[in-house]
Amino acid sequence: MSELNGRQRLETPRGTRGLRFHIDVEAVGRVSESIARFLGTGRYLLMQTVVVVVWVALNVFAVRLQWDPYPFILLNLAFSTQAAYAAPLILLAQNRQENRDRVSLEEDRARAAQTKADTEFLARELAALRLAVGEVATRDYLRRELDDIRQLLAVREGGEDEPDSAAGPKSPTGRK
């Protein structure tokens, strides 16, 4: 038992051995996106075309400089190497863009749901205001009432009979 106290216990895993690399995933992603963005430009295609034309011209016409004769095996190897690195970088950039699009879509959905809830709340408030305004005395209603009172006062002062009130009371909105 005392031997195990000086050493680590068997059921406890040891730490990792060897060199440990700390890679910033975001930095690698940003670099891959910038490379993928550059590989998709007309500028890159033009530069690659110029390099290929110069390569082929030098290897066909400059007899003393022929480092890659006609089947251009070295040029093919260079393109294969470029494609082997470009394809994963482009896929990585697409995956990052997909993740950004997904997050953006989720935010848009949340914003749309909030907007819908706000709109429904405002519609309910507007309906409540319309109902409340329907019960408030309008300017036309007050004018009619004041005209009726004025007529009643004029009739009482003049000793005439009261006007016909058989129509009944009117509501503040002017409806019966």
Briefly summarize what is shown.
This is DUF1003 domain-containing protein. The protein is an all-alpha fold. 69% of the residues lie in helices and 0% in strands.
How is the secondary structure organized here?
Elements: H1 2-6, H2 25-39, H3 42-61, H4 73-134, H5 139-158
Helix pairs in contact: 2-4
Protein name: DUF1003 domain-containing protein
Transmembrane segments: 44-67, 73-93
Keywords: Membrane, Transmembrane, Transmembrane helix
Walkthrough of the structure:
It is elongated and about 135 Å long. Helix 2 packs across helix 4 (about 75-135). It has a domain at about 25-135. It is built from 5 helices and no strands. The model has no long low-confidence stretch (mean pLDDT about 85). It has helices at about 1-5, 25-40, 40-60, 75-135, 140-160. The longest helix is centred in the middle third of the chain and has 62 residues, at about 75-135. By secondary structure, it is an all-alpha fold.
